[in-house]
UniProtKB/TrEMBL annotation:
UniProt entry keywords in alphabetical sequence: Membrane, Transmembrane, Transmembrane helix
Protein name: DUF2142 domain-containing protein
Spans through the membrane: 6-23, 35-56, 114-134, 155-176, 188-205, 217-238
Keyword Hydrolase among UniProt keywords: no
Pfam families hit by this protein: DUF2142
Length: 239
């Protein structure tokens, strides 16, 4: 049910359902049921997505593309444009990495709020990064035993996170990027937040093991950082 609710509104986020593959096979009657149930979840999301986004897909399959919002004098990329000129498409992806990677990271953490007019201090952003890394890398002995992280966990999380990442790029590539652009336009870092925990948890390991639980300190640090963020927003609200 949740997959059906997510697929129509938020493209490709239904792939978060890939975490169902992390359910141990012993929880199912047999291996066949494991694959039927989990693959069925993903297939259900694809079908729901295709039904509700059929018009979107049909508009961008053609060679001409639709009129661009960014530049009314031209059209957006279409699926045919992208697949028909692979060297140019690779160049677009490479330029997107060079030109936009830092923007994606900063806006994912929250450096620019609202319509990018509220800029948060780099010190606060660095604090959030430290907290995120601390919660993902550091573990106590109890957590390692209770929530073991194996290769299967890492591969599944990274695979579906990568598919969602590429899906978001593809959606904005054909839905927002003028054909005259040499990079993908319209992508914001906040689009990656739904699957950011999946990526962070893959870094959990047995290398950094804490003797004491620091969750309270991490929670307090997050609260302080949020207060500084709030104080940064206030002038824009009352001004």
């Amino acid at each position: 049910m949740l997959i059906c609710m997510i697929a129509p509104g938020k493209m490709f986020y239904f792939l978060i359902g890939g975490i169902f593959f992390l359910i141990p096979k012993r929880k199912f009657a047999n291996a066949k049921q494991f694959w039927i149930v989990n693959c069925g979840m993903i297939l259900l999301g694809i079908i729901t997505f295709a039904i509700f986004k059929f018009q979107f897909l049909s508009d961008y399959v053609g060679t001409s593309g639709t009129q661009s919002v960014m530049d009314p004098t031209t059209v957006n990329y279409s699926i045919s444009n992208i697949l028909g000129n692979i060297p140019n498409s690779i160049n677009v992806l490479f330029n997107t990495y060079l030109d936009r990677a830092e923007f994606y990271f900063n806006t994912m953490i929250g450096s620019s709020l609202g319509w990018f007019q509220v800029n948060i201090s780099s010190i606060v952003i660095s604090g959030f990064v430290v907290v995120l890394l601390g919660t993902s890398i550091c573990s106590t002995k109890e957590e390692i035993i209770a929530y073991p992280i194996d290769k299967k966990f890492r591969y599944i999380n990274l695979l579906f996170s990568f598919l969602m990442f590429m899906g978001i790029l593809a959606a904005l590539w054909i839905g927002w990027t003028p054909i005259s652009y040499n990079y993908i336009e319209g992508v914001q870092g906040r689009y990656f937040l739904p699957f950011l925990p999946m990526v962070l948890f893959t870094f959990r390991n047995k290398t950094v093991i804490l003797q004491k639980d620091v969750n309270r300190w991490l929670g307090l640090s997050t609260y302080v950082l949020l207060m500084f963020t709030f104080l940064s927003i206030v002038p824009y609200v009352i001004g």
